[in-house]
Design brief:
four-stranded mixed β-sheet; 18 helices; immunoglobulin/albumin-binding domain-like; 8% strand; 49% helix; single chain; 7-stranded beta/alpha barrel; alpha/beta
Length: 454
């Protein structure tokens, strides 16, 4: 009975839209602390399933990104580490200063690795890219029309094929958002499988979480298993343990020299904890595999490295531990080849949000954004053959799930509202005959065609 570990890799379109405290720095940090550190693990582990969103790929290949990334690493990050280390020494904390200087080396190593790749992070990731997503990570059940869904999904699939060649039909539905009315549309687009979160449908830990089901009119619905996911991603998960680097307690310039238990960070202690937690994780996975034909653990790639500094080391140890014990860690596409799923029962609309419905992206905090995006989609559809490529790209940008998420979760509320207003206004101007270039680099291959189909 196989185990699949899926890494969903995504970044909202921030390239060219601000820097500190929100904007391009999100992308630079993810590149430096997650994507580059994970390359060695991915290169040695074809069993892992890597999902790349088209909107992330758009940014990684945008002109000028490499130069600005290196400038960030070698000027901004060098200076901020120096300022914080000096401040700690002035306050008599030599131990904290040394920990900060140790952290600074990670950014210099990232710069060296990036240059060693010829500045092509996407090319390095491409060797393992398997699953794609909708063009801009839109919550598909919240779109207003079938045509809007086709636009998002077809643009995402076309972008994946153009960049990476083959595609075996795996589509990461953003936020694991699924509703049964989407199934025939996904099937029309060639989607073979998508991951869903059915925790509140069948109950956490239920055997049904380990049994993919085939939608009557669409793809195979693959449940993600919260029983193993929350070992890693939850308030009490592995990253909260004492020896690990605390990602929340930060210095003046947002560096992280403390452990989760409040002591000064020690990389050796943290490394040993990562090995212990990898062994524990594989123990738990083995137990789950006794209950059903497929256990799927899905994690956001950015958790590993950026939010959980030791995450790449833990992942490498998990792969090694699975091999040592003979635990069947397999690529999700390969696992699905060997299954004959039974038909799915009627299912409600679900996501991975809390609660596991659509409210994170459409509840009171985000309702204005959700309804605004739907109204904009209907207006774009009504424009018919007068709809231009720039308007299409503004619509795709407006539909991103990220603006509602950062607003409803109070992570970057002003930025999310600003971006939604910006793209909504630019779309309205384009539809009224104004000239608009559209977001630079976003969805360059997208066309109005799916919105014009009968």
């Amino acid at each position: 009975m196989p185990f699949a570990l899926v890494l969903h890799t995504h970044m909202p379109y921030v390239e060219g839209y601000g820097s500190w405290p929100f904007g391009e720095e999100w992308l630079w940090e993810a590149m430096a602390t997650s994507y580059l550190p994970l390359l060695d693990v991915l290169a040695d582990a074809p069993e892992l399933t890597l999902s790349l969103t088209p909107v992330l790929c758009d940014q990684l290949e945008a002109p000028g990104v490499g130069e600005r990334f290196l400038e960030f690493l070698r000027t901004v990050r060098v200076a901020t580490h120096e300022h914080d280390a000096a401040g700690c020494r002035a306050g008599g904390r030599e131990d904290l200063a040394r920990a900060i200087e140790h952290s600074a080396l990670d950014y210099l190593r990232a710069a060296e690795r990036f240059e060693g790749l010829g500045g092509d992070v996407l090319g390095a990731l491409a060797r393992r890219a398997a699953w794609t997503s909708s063009a801009t990570h839109a919550v598909l059940p919240l779109l207003a029309t079938d045509a809007g869904v086709r636009l998002q999904v077809e643009a995402g699939i076309d972008a994946h094929r153009a960049r990476f060649g083959g595609w075996r039909g795996g589509l990461w539905s953003p936020e694991c958002a699924h509703a049964s009315w989407l199934d025939p549309l996904l099937a029309e687009c060639g989607v073979r499988a998508t991951c869903v979160d059915l925790t509140d449908v069948f109950g956490r830990g239920a055997p049904e979480q380990l049994r993919p089901r085939r939608a009557p009119a669409g793809p195979v619905l693959v449940p993600i298993d919260r029983e193993v996911i929350e070992l890693v991603w939850s308030d009490g998960g592995y990253p909260s343990k004492g020896p690990y680097r605390d990602s929340h307690q930060r210095t003046t310039h947002h560096h992280k020299p403390w452990r989760c238990d409040g002591a000064v960070y020690d990389p050796d202690d943290a490394g040993e904890q990562a090995l212990r937690d990898a062994a524990d994780f594989v123990d738990r996975v083995e137990a789950r595999l006794e209950a059903g034909p497929l256990c799927v653990c899905a994690l956001d790639t950015e958790l590993l490295g950026h939010w959980w500094y030791e995450g790449p080391a833990w992942l490498a140890a998990v792969v090694a531990e699975c091999r040592r014990r003979g635990v069947p860690l397999v690529h999700l596409d390969d696992a699905l080849d060997g299954l004959d799923p039974e038909e799915a029962p009627p299912l409600p609309a679900t996501t991975w949000g809390r609660p596991r419905d659509l409210s994170t992206w459409s509840g009171p905090a985000a309702a204005e954004l959700a309804w605004g995006a739907r109204a904009a989609e209907l207006r774009a559809l009504a424009a018919g053959r007068s709809l231009g490529a720039a308007a299409v790209r503004e619509l795709l940008a407006l539909q991103s799930s990220d603006w509602a998420f950062v607003v409803s979760q109070r992570l970057a509320e002003p930025y999310g509202l600003e971006r939604a207003a910006l793209h909504g206004g630019a779309l309205a101007a384009a539809l009224d005959g104004g000239r608009a270039a559209g977001p630079r680099g976003l969805a360059p291959r997208a066309t109005p065609a799916p919105l014009l189909a009968p």
